[in-house]
Amino acid sequence: MTDSSSTGRSAGVSTAGMRRILPPDVVERGRAPFDPPPGLRGGGPVRPLDLLNGARAWLVTGFEEARTVLSDARFSADKLRHHDATSPRPPQAPVAEREDGAFVFMDPPEHTRLRRALTGQFTVRRMRQLEARVREIAVEHIEAMRAAGTRADLVPAFALPLPSLVICELLGVDYADRAEFQERTAVGLSASSTPQEQIAARAELHAFMRRLVSAKRSDPADDLLSGLVHDADPPLTDAQLVDMALLLLTAGHETTANMLGLGTFALLEHPGQLAALRAEPGLIDGAVEELLRFLSIIQLGVSRVATEPVTLGGVDLPAGATVVIATPEVNRDPRHWPDPDVLDVRRARTPHLAFGHGVHQCLGQQLARIELRIGLGELLSRLPGLRLAVPAGQVPVRDEMLVFGVRSLPVTW
């Protein structure tokens, strides 16, 4: 999610800009790292949100209202054709035709064509192959931690490298290039990197992806990027392919890494739930869904613009209104879940919005679930004594980012 030759890199810039103009009480969680920020609570399912840039948006905290925004064509995701109040950039002249591949910021029919090309690459066969590889990677890293002693920081030792290597498998990154890819990814997406380091790393990742696309054109293999290069009809341009690869990287790496780290932290801080999961490993699928709902790490990164007057949750919104979906509170809507603030790995499966909804629902959700199910399952089975190595209050969280998580997670076993 990222602007260089196209709007691919603008996504990363825009989300960082959004964070700077949001009131602190709607993003900072303080001493309650697993609960929504206090500013999201109360006030009805749709209410005004005054931004620090002087603009007004509308905050959506109700489950049904959020589903409506994400599925109703009157709410646009296209930030080039409709000005989003959370954008740090001034309104731009509408574009007649888009040439980039950042389809998450497009509406149909442009969005439909690019998404369809990518959907065709997420085959059942490829997911099954990746499942075996996810387990190999997870076990490899857990055994490396055990060999090094009885203590580790779970974020760099496990949570970050697992999804990074899975993305390498998905895109067909050569083994010789994977160390460079992982290093650039870690710096570019790390909350601890300086802005200058992040900008440089992301520029290098963009160049890396250009080289990778070129390599797949001349020497295709059995991977997702080769499929996009050679199977799309009509063919995709290099700019579109680079943008799509970078979107997959950001969406597939940062979110899963943060869920692995934060999900482990949450289980360690809820010993009854952890014990239930250890006693009944078959609960893992439901536990993953419950952690996705309970933690909802995409804080306020999803916004839409009303293209005409709309009544939402009893509130009249004018054309041009920006609506911001507060996923952590949406997934705690008491109208939809009993005891929504309770983590319950035995909770009956109910739809949540951790992966979005409608035409923009996360394409890689099946793979994310595989990584979380296997990653958390292997951690709990291979490290039966796993526990925090520091008091919970000393675990540093990253609520200054739009994707919530932990900066580090010192553990012992």
UniProtKB/TrEMBL annotation:
List the biased-composition ranges (Polar residues): 1-13
What InterPro entries does the annotation carry?
Cyt_P450, Cyt_P450_B, Cyt_P450_CS, Cyt_P450_sf
Organism's domain of life?
Bacteria
Q: What family does this belong to?
A: Belongs to the cytochrome P450 family.
Q: Which UniProt keywords apply?
A: Heme, Iron, Metal-binding, Monooxygenase, Oxidoreductase
The protein in question is named Cytochrome P450
Q: What molecular function terms (GO) are annotated for this protein? A: heme binding; iron ion binding; monooxygenase activity; oxidoreductase activity, acting on paired donors, with incorporation or reduction of molecular oxygen
Disordered as annotated region, ranges: 1-46, 79-98
Give the Pfam families listed for this entry.
p450
